[in-house]
Amino acid sequence: MEAQQRSKNQILYLLKTRGALSAIALAEALHLSAMAVRQHLQALQAEGLVSYLEEKRPVGRPVKLWRLTDRAAAIFPDTHADLMVDLLRGVEAVFGAAGLEKLIAERSQRQIQAYTENISAAEDWRSRVYAIARDRTREGYMAEAIELPDNTMLLIENHCPIRAAAASCGLLCKAELEVFKALLGATVAIERVEHILGCDRRCAYRIFPI
Which CATH number covers residue 31? Predict the structure, then answer.
């Protein structure tokens, strides 16, 4: 039973970090049989955690691509969601919009200071991106850095542990982008190309030299 639950958790993690996948792709990644993976997927579907879309192929039958449901989002922690939303609303109610902006700006400065200490040994901007990804992963963002053939990089956050707060206060997402810009310096540009709050599966930032 424990092994089965571990396999199901691994499936959920892969669907979270890689997006929609077929049973065969999951089986290859987990070194399990396709039949075993399909049984796990059926169990997860019964729990309301996964669903599938059929993708037509030029040859053969359509392929089922499995993905997480909205219900599955509860499995991945949203750090003190209700408390953070209440605090942000309380700050704005008491101190106004200017007070809320000041609070988030102060948070950003503390983030920059903490991240700077961890990336100080990075030799170039690519190394800084990898270091930021490691820091963000430790904070629950399930982050990764990917180098692309066109001399750009992607900083990907597969999860947002402050999603509820960010949905309540758009300044948090704006501040996040500004923090990354400050950390990476003036020799590179960064743009958000995917956004969880924009109904994308993840947040992703394209980074390139200028």
Answer: 1.10.10.10
